[in-house]
Structure formats: C-alpha cells, structure tokens
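Customer ticket, subject: "Can you confirm the structure for Addiction module antitoxin RelB?"

Message body: Hello, I'm evaluating your service for our small team and ran a test protein. I'd like someone to confirm that this is what the system normally returns, since I don't have a reference to compare against.
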Amino acid sequence: MEIRYSITLHLAVISKDIPRLDTFWRHTIRDAIREKLKTKPELYGKPLRQTLKSCRTLRIGDYRVVFKIQDITVYIVGIVHRRAKYEGIEKRI
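Agent reply: Thanks for trying us out. I re-ran your input and got the following:
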C-alpha cells in the first residue's frame, strides 16, 4: 500500500511566495506538489546542505519548492525562483 503524505504550507508561503507567482506557475507548482510530494517526496526531492540540511528541494521549471518531511507530513517552507538564494528560508524552519 502506498503512503499518502499530507501537505502543510508555511504561513509565509501562503502570504508571500504564492502571491508572487503568475497563474501559470501557481497551477504548475500545485500540480507537481500533488503528483510528486503527496506520494514519494523522498524520491523526487533533492537533499539540501548546510543550514538547510534538514530540507529537500523539488525543482519545477524556474522555481524550487523547499520542503521538510516529518512522519507522513510534508511541510513546504518556501517557493523560490531558482536564481534566488535560500535567504530567509532557514528562518521559516
């Protein structure tokens, strides 16, 4: 039986990250989260290092979804453009 993970968004993702995205990227990222992170987040997510070593990242086009896995919950802590640095994300953990 396949495990279905629940998805929880950090407040800053809801209030800052998502509103900055245009409609196309909102839908694309939402669909990728539903398809990949709800089923096998450890397979699709690349581990991060240094201050974000407890997190993983999923690349979706020009954006990265930064997330953390705890039990059967995936906590999305940031959605950033791939050229942007992860500044501020470590404060959300």
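A couple of notes from the result: Strands lie at 6-9, 46-47, 56-60, 63-70, 73-81. The helical segments are 11-17, 23-37, 41-44. Feel free to reply with more questions.
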